[in-house]
Amino acid sequence: MQERHKNREQYFREQSYTTEHYVIPFIDKIQLIDPTVSVLEIGCGEGGNMLPFLQRGCRTVGVDMNKNKIANAQKFYATLELPVQPDFFLTDIYEWNSTEQFDLILMRDVLEHIHNQERFFRYVKKFLKPKGKIFVGFPPWQNPYGGHQQIFESWVSKLPYIHLLPTFAYKGILSLMRESPHEIRNALEIKETRITIERFFKIVKQEDYRVEQAEYYFINPNYQIKFGLKPRRQWKWITKMPWIRNFVITTCYVLLTPQS
Q1: Greater model confidence, 5 or 214
Q2: 242 in Cβ contact with 252 (< 8 Å)
């Protein structure tokens, strides 16, 4: 794993920066984020995405299945003075028995880790208030680093599109490079879910969501704080080219509202 991915506090700050400067302004166009808004982040990790919402006084809850990440989140937030404090739950979202409903569900770089996304979008409606919304930010599967290979230790981390190799070849290369079994499993999981722009919109239409707005980036907003690269939206004519666009869009921002 690359050094910057090992530093979870740095990762926390990077998530917070991108959410503050790009995710919230995107949502604000449709739903103003103020203290009246309640937020649920699914797959919250250390909770970096939650910080800008908490600083605005929002009731904010994070759910994640990773024990170490939830422990880090609680440690990081213990040092911060905020208008409101977050709540964290160590659980699978399907096993969380909360009856609370929220104005906004936040999912950033999580969808590509979820199997049976149809079931997921059907299920999470129960956590939304009437007129509640879901923010989804995800990297299309075929983009240069859509397999998250940048987390690996070896030279594989530098190779764009290598995750598009057949599974046996991809797994063989990762094993040959002595990548950890845990990271290999994660990489193959993303290869199994392989969410594309076309499949995403097919799913949300099937599950009766309305797309409020969408933005597509050639240079991911994450890259500003990580690599010093200025974020850049993809040209509109490319975003309208099915399948081809998946190879040259590094992330999609989408805001959804259930229609029923």
Answers
A1: 214
A2: no
